[in-house]
Amino acid sequence: MLFTSLLIFLITQALPGDVARILLGREASQHAIDQLRAQLGLDRPLPVQYLTWLADFVKGNWGTSFSTGQPVRALVLSRLVNSLQLAGLTLVIAVPTAVAMGVIAALYEESWIDTLISLLSLSVVGLPEFITGLVLIQVFSFRLGWLPANSSIAPGTGFFAALPYLVLPALTATLVLLAYVARLTRASMLVELNRPYVRTAVLKGVRWRRVVVSHVLRNALLPTITVIAISFGWLISGLIVVENVFNYPGLGRLLTFAIARRDIPLIQAVALVAVLGFALANLVADILYAAFNPRITLR
Q1: Cα 106 from Cα 189, distance rounded (Å)
Q2: How far from 162 is each of 158, 159, 185, 251, CA to CA, in Å?
Q3: Is 200 exposed, middle or buried (0-12, 13-18, 19+ CB in 10 A)?
Q4: What is the pTM of this model?
Q5: Does residue 131 share a domain with residue 278?
Q6: Cβ neighbours for 121, distance < 8 A, ≥ 6 positions apart
Q7: SS3 per-residue string spanning 188-255
Q8: Cβ burial, residue 232 (10 Å; 0-12/13-18/19+)
Q9: What gap in Å lies between CA 141 and CA 147, rounded to an integer?
Q10: Running DSSP on this structure, what letter comes out for residue 23?
Q11: What percent helix, strand, coil does the chain show, rounded to 5?
Q12: Distance between CA 29 and CA 25 in Å, rounded?
C-alpha cells in the first residue's frame, strides 16, 4: 500500500496541465494562479507534498475536492458503498452460476452440453460491456418494462431500495465474469477428476455425488478463489463502462469525473481505496485457501 501510494502520487503529479489554471480558467492572471497554487500547497517540493498527503490520508483527512468543494472522504465513502452493493450482487449472481456451469461442463466433458456451455460463455464475454448493457436495457426496460433503464440512485439509498436499479448493471458485470470463472472451474475440475484419490474413493464405494462435492469441487475451487478475489477488486472500481452506461453513481464513475476535471485529491483517494480493495480481496483469498486446503497453514 505504501509503495502504491507513492506511485499514485507520482502519476497524478505527472498528469498534463496546471491544476490552478484549469480551476481558474484560461483568462486568469499569473498572480491569481500563483496565489491558488500556494493556497493548495502545489508550490511546495514534491516530497513534502507526498508526506503531507499520506499523513493526512492516514488520519482520515482526505482533503477537499477541487471541482465540487466537498470533503473527499465523505464523497468517496458514499460512492464506495454503492460500488460494494453492486459488487456484492454481481458476485452473488456470477459465482454460483459460473461454478455450476464449470462443474457441469467438466462432468460432461466433450459432450454437447460441454460444447454449448463453452459457446455461450465465450460468445457473451466477447461482447463489450456497453453493448451488453444496451441490449439488456432494450429487452428488460423498453420491451418488457420489468426493470429501470437508469440506475441513478439518491445518496444513502439502502440495498433493498436500490435493488431494482442494481439488477441490470449486475447482470452486465456477471456476463463479463461468467466465462473466465466457468472455464477456470472446468479446467480445475478436469485435473482433479483424473487424480488417484477420485478413483480410490469410487472403488471404496463412496457415492459419486459426495466425491464430486466434498473432494473434487473443494480442491478445484482453489484457483477459482484467486480469480474471484481479483474480480472483486475490479468490481469495486473497475466498472467504469458499466456505471456510465447505466448512470450508476459508483467509484468508477466518480474516477472518470475526477480525471475529466483534473481533481487530484479525488483521483488519489479513489485510486488508493481501489488498491486497498484489491489488497483486502487477496487477503481474504489467502484465508479461504487455508480453509479449503488443510495442507496450508496461516502463521
Answers
A1: 6
A2: 6, 5, 31, 16
A3: exposed
A4: 0.80
A5: yes
A6: 101, 178, 179, 182, 183
A7: HHHHHHCCHHHHHHHHCCCCHHHHHHHHHHHHHHHHHHHHHHHHHHHHHHCCHHHHHHHCCCCHHHHH
A8: buried
A9: 5
A10: H
A11: 75, 0, 25
A12: 9
**Residues 19, 111: one domain?**
no
Q: Based on the domain organization, do 140 and 244 belong to the same domain?
A: yes
Local structure of residue 267 (DSSP, 8 states): H
**How would you classify residue 137: left for phi > 0, otherwise alpha for psi between -120 and 50, otherwise beta?**
alpha
Q: Are residues 185 and 240 in the same domain?
A: yes
Q: Is residue 67 part of a domain?
A: no
pLDDT in tens, 203-258: 888 888 888 887 788 788 877 887 887 788 778 766 788 888 888 888 888 888 88
Outline where DSSP puts E strands in 98-193: none
Same domain, 54 and 188: no
User: How far apart, in whole angstroms, are the C-alpha atoms of residue 97 and residue 182?
Assistant: 8
Q: According to the model, what pLDDT value does residue 17 have?
A: 67
pLDDT digits (tens, 9 = 90+) for 62-87: 888 877 878 888 888 888 888 888 88
Q: Residue 179's closest CA among 101, 295, 113, 90?
A: 101
Crossing angle of helices 251-260 and 72-107, rounded to 10°: 130
231: containing domain? 72-292
pLDDT tens, residue by residue, 133-166 = 888 888 888 888 888 888 888 777 778 888 888 8
CA distance 30 to 97: 59
pLDDT tens digits, one per residue of 174-213 = 888 888 888 888 888 888 888 888 888 888 888 888 888 8
